[in-house]
Amino acid sequence: MRHPMTRRELLRTSACGFGSLALAGIASEQAAREARAASVSDPLAAHAPHFPARAKRVIFIWMQGGPSHVDSFDPKPALTTYDGKTVELYNSRQRRKQPERIMKELWKFKRYGACGQAVSELFPHIAQHVDDLCFIKSMHTEGVAHGPATLFMHCGSTNLIRPSVGAWVSYGLGTENRNLPAFVTINPPMSKGGPRNWGNAFLPTVYQGTAVGRVGVPASKTHFNHITNERLDKDLQDEQFAFLQQLNRTQIDQRGLTSTDMELEATINSYELAYRMQAHAPQIMDISSESAATREAYGLDLKHCEDFGHQCLLARRLAEAGVRYIQINYSDNGATPRWDQHGNMPQHMTHARATDQPVGALLADLKQRGLLEDTLVWWGGEFGRTPFAQGSNGRDHNPSGFTVFLAGGGVKPGYSHGATDEFGHNAMTDKVHMHDLHATILHLMGLDHLRLTYKYAGRDFRLTDVYGEVVHDIIA
């Protein structure tokens, strides 16, 4: 008696079935069926912005832990006047007003540039670029702890799983270079939200950030994992990959999926991107071609800033290569974020020395190469620090008022926006919420935050939720 299926047919159909199960596990069917049909075939193709963009790309320099604004860019003479005295202030941790001991600024300030921006001794290199910088000194945000505030800064939500800023930008604009990811994060931390901070959440997989390197590994060792295959020659790899993609496409045909099933298509597209990266990504990550002067400028020969300098140089190379959203992370792998000095504010000097020269070099390098004009640089932490002391010489978290700065990409150079109160405790004048900053970043990229939506579970989601106003005063 002949079996209804030959052994060869059984193996062939079973193999396809296993592939189907694997792909189904990766993809979210619910999100896929609600995705944009128009972008299925080529989700990372460059999309036209909603209106003319001022910036083509973003470099976000994250200072994890919250640097003290009153010790860096927002001097407050009242802190010296009231140093050691007790003042009744609202404590965000305790959620009440209570007596707090004021602590003076720990570093001297000096005015720089034609704009006269005050910068403390912590940042002498960044100070040389104040005429290119746009300071926002009235920031406020959600979340008094690192976890919620970090998620809010990256995703616009303190607790729900939402797409990150970079994922939204990739979704809205696609990539400038088909051979590289649209969104790259360099040496990101695994704590305080971890992968959610560069995740795609319910957006299709292809918009997720690509992490290169990890905290604890020197940035000089940073590379895209599994990017080369030394065992097989290129012709054989090409054949294998073509066969793999043929199997993947067969699954779509056999499953009867419609063109709106974007998640499965995005997964397949991510395989194609990874394959193309083999020929292009290694040379982008290889800085051996950089001049001695460039290496010196970024501090690659200085132990205290070599690691972050390498990150900043990689960011410039990725921007030059057409990566749409690049994040540099000055962060820790342990429980204590870098700038989180609750009981030892002098430690701020260590972190400033590690980051100041590389950031200054990045700003100068982008400008010299003509990239700063259409690259938006964003520097800042998830919140600031209190004007009152914690312990003998520390400062606690302060989500109610802090400073970030922007550069390039259509913002006003040599400009300072907004103000905190006399102690630097609360944003008071021209307040800018994190939702507003997100809306403004999208606006500079040519994206209307009200129109950049994605339908999921019956609701149109956006980065700014139901909030956010573009801060037009900072736009040149």
Q: What does this protein structure show overall?
A:
- The structure is a single chain.
- This protein is an alpha/beta fold.
- The protein has one domain (52-225, 285-474): Alkaline Phosphatase, subunit A (3-Layer(aba) Sandwich), CATH 3.40.720.
- 32% of the residues lie in helices and 18% in strands.
- The protein contains 12 helices and 19 strands.
- Strands 1, 6, 7, 8, 9, 10, 13, 14 and 17 form a 9-stranded mixed β-sheet that branches. The protein has a two-stranded antiparallel sheet with strand order 2-3. Strands 4-5 form a two-stranded antiparallel ribbon.
- Helix 1 (7-26) crosses helix 7 (234-255), helix 7 runs antiparallel to helix 8 and helix 10 (306-320) packs parallel to helix 11.
Mean pLDDT, all residues: 88
Which percent range fits the helix content? 25-40%
CATH-assigned fold name: Alkaline Phosphatase, subunit A
Anisotropy-based shape = globular
Number of strands: 19
Summed up, the domain count is 1
- Give the low-pLDDT segments: 17-39
Tell me the name of the CATH class: Alpha Beta
Characterize the quaternary organization of these chains: single chain
Question: What fraction of residues sit in β-strands?
Answer: 15-25%
Distance between the termini: 82 Å
CATH architecture: 3-Layer(aba) Sandwich
SS element count, helices: 12
Largest sheet: 9 strands, mixed
Report the C-alpha radius of gyration, rounded: 24 Å
Structural class of the helix and strand makeup? alpha/beta
